[in-house]
Amino acid sequence: MDKIRRPSHAGSWYTDNPKKLEEELEGWLGATGLTKSPDVRGVIAPHAGYSYSGRAAAYAFGNIDPTNITRVFLLGPSHHYYTPKCALSTATVYKTPIGDLPIDLEVIEELKATGKFELMDLQVDEAEHSMEMHLPYLVKIFEGHPVKVVPILVGALNTDNEAMYGRLLAKYVDDPTNFFSVSSDFCHWGSRFHYTHYDKKCGPIHKSIEALDKMGMDIIETGNADAFKQYLSEYDNTICGRHPISVFLHMSSNCSTKIKIKFLRYEQSSQCKTMRDSSVSYASAAAKVDA
Q1: For 4, 60, 102, 187, which has the most beta carbons within 10 A of its beta carbon?
Q2: Percent of the chain with pLDDT over 90
Q3: Which InterPro entries match (predicted)?
């Protein structure tokens, strides 16, 4: 008997009309002009409502060549549920308005057996949007290619645990049939986010935010998890997927495959000009096998 995770954010964060959703995704993917590459083994993509970040996300998902991929690991931050660990889904199917993605129960069991993961109940799973916002894109990209997902909710991990989960998951990177979808928005700026870092040397506020995000993106591209940690502790940039990104950096430095991350798109929900303004940044990256 299937245990279904409903697309709880369809109809609010993105359209629940299948035809309209297909058209939107096709439009955004087409507009990127990207060539699909079998060397792309992972993406970092935003998870805001599609009216804000749908277009930016296409610059991550548009790189994926689905031909040889049979499994997608989803790493998303936890927004509502506190855990110092990573949690696994207890669902067997993730539904979307345009198709369903079965959960890879075999890998879930394998991860469970390590004793390092907790389980999230369906309520926690459905309340969280960070992985759900990647699902319609995955359904679209993998149309006609059978693929299973391994959803991992990444909690408020300390540095040691980020490294531990990275080492534990690294072996999956070496299997070219596995793919990794890492969910993160970038700077959440404004008093409503309790974050108003502003370096006047950069010019207007939105340029200061961009400089701060770009600094973080450059560090992520080096693949150095410690340097990313250092950057976060220095600037406290409100990157909500900092833990999933850190785990992914540890994964790529602990596997035998050489992985290179490159950012392809950066956008802001609005351009902040005064201290009363607010915005969220969106950045999309592809992680490629570096020959």
Answers
A1: 60
A2: 98
A3: MEMO1_fam
Residue-wise pLDDT for 240-269, tens only, equals: 999 999 999 999 999 999 999 999 999 999
The structure's pTM equals 0.96
pLDDT at 255: 96
pLDDT in tens, 107-152: 999 999 999 999 999 999 999 999 999 999 999 999 999 999 999 9
As a CATH number, domain 4-289 is 3.40.830.10
User: What is the secondary structure of the chain as a DSSP string?
Assistant: ---EEP-TTBTTTB---HHHHHHHHHHHHHHH-PPPBTTEEEEEE--S-HHHHHHHHHHHHTTB--TT--EEEEEEE-SS---SSEEEE--SEEEETTEEEEB-HHHHHHHHTTT-EEEE-HHHHHH--TTGGGHHHHHHHTTTS--EEEEEEE-S--HHHHHHHHHHHHHHHTSTTEEEEEE----EEBGGGTB----GGGSSHHHHHHHHHHHHHHHHHHT-HHHHHHHHHHH----TTHHHHHHHHHHHHHSSS-EEEEEEEEEESS---STT--EEEEEEEEEEE--
The pLDDT of residue 105 is 97
Contact 255, 249 (CB under 8 A): no
Q: Please give the mean pLDDT across all residues of the chain.
A: 97
Task: Return d(Cα 136, Cα 100) in angstroms, integer.
Answer: 9
CA distances from 116 to 162, 163, 168, 284 (A): 12, 13, 9, 29
pLDDT of residue 1: 84
Residues 283, 265: contact at Cβ < 8 Å?
yes
